[in-house]
Amino acid sequence: MKYAILITGSGGQGVLSSGMSIASSVSGLAHSTYVPWYGAAQRGGVARCSVVVSDEPILSPLPGLYNAIVAMNDSACQKALSELRHGGLIVRNSNRCTSRISADAILLDVPADDMAKEAGDRRMANMVLTGALLGMVGVIPLEDVEELMLSKMAAKNPALGEMNRKALEAGYAWGEDPDHIVELEEKEVTDSKYSLERTTVGELLDTPELRAVVERIVPQILEHPLIEAGRMFRIADALPYIKDMITDEQLNEFRTALESL
């Protein structure tokens, strides 16, 4: 079992602490990695972190495509959609995320701001969303995250720890309820011959129709110094090494073109 989670939002929304809570809580039971992107997080810019949990050693902490996205605001959610696997899970704060999503995915809308306020403080919305993810997926026991969180806060601020616990449990209960799943208008999904998840870099380089797509949409990746060495990689697994070379719009266009062949 390997499960990759992308948590995304803005600085000050608790993105990084949510990721750290998940990754640290499973360290004694399974393998986990945690990779934060700070950017201009302290000034309200984009904040993201990648968490991978697995029952086997993790070869790369950056999976390329994720099983789940936890989004704390609308802008962050829309930008992250291209990094979600087909059939993946989107957990978003419905108090801040209102844009329509058309995707092959499961959507769990959570009124995290409202639920956090009921738990004691609206700033606990990140814990509500974390709990909703755990309740929906069931990969990590709620008790493990609670124990870690409360142990860290016991000495310096037990009252804050209790509010976090309430927020986490409220989110967990929300995520467990199947009635809270929002039906999406799915894109037409076909059994395409090629995809980011199945096609290798070697196929991309050697198959004329695939190489033509690369040359038309993302020709710059052909200049990567390690592209020949990465022939055995699936495109999805190679994405972390070329993310700085392509835009989200190019990735979406490339993915659509690949799957239409």
CATH homology-level superfamily of the largest domain: Pyruvate-ferredoxin oxidoreductase, PFOR, domain III
The total tally of domains equals 2
Largest sheet, in brief, is:
7 strands, mixed
User: What's the overall average pLDDT, rounded?
Assistant: 85
Gap between N and C termini: 31 Å
Name the features.
2 domains; 10 helices; single chain; alpha/beta; elongated; 7-stranded mixed sheet; 261 residues; Pyruvate-ferredoxin Oxidoreductase, domain 3
Verbal overview:
- By secondary structure, the protein is an alpha/beta fold.
- The protein folds into 2 domains: 2-182, 3-Layer(aba) Sandwich (Pyruvate-ferredoxin Oxidoreductase, domain 3), CATH 3.40.920; 201-260, no CATH class.
- It is 41% helix and 19% strand.
- The protein contains 10 helices and 7 strands.
- It has helices spanning 15-25, 74-80, 112-119, 125-137, 142-153, 158-176, 201-206, 208-217, 235-242, 248-260; strands spanning 2-10, 31-37, 46-54, 66-71, 84-93, 105-110, 181-182.
- Strands 2-3-1-4-5-6-7 form a 7-stranded mixed β-sheet, with helices on both faces.
- The model has no long low-confidence stretch (mean pLDDT 85).
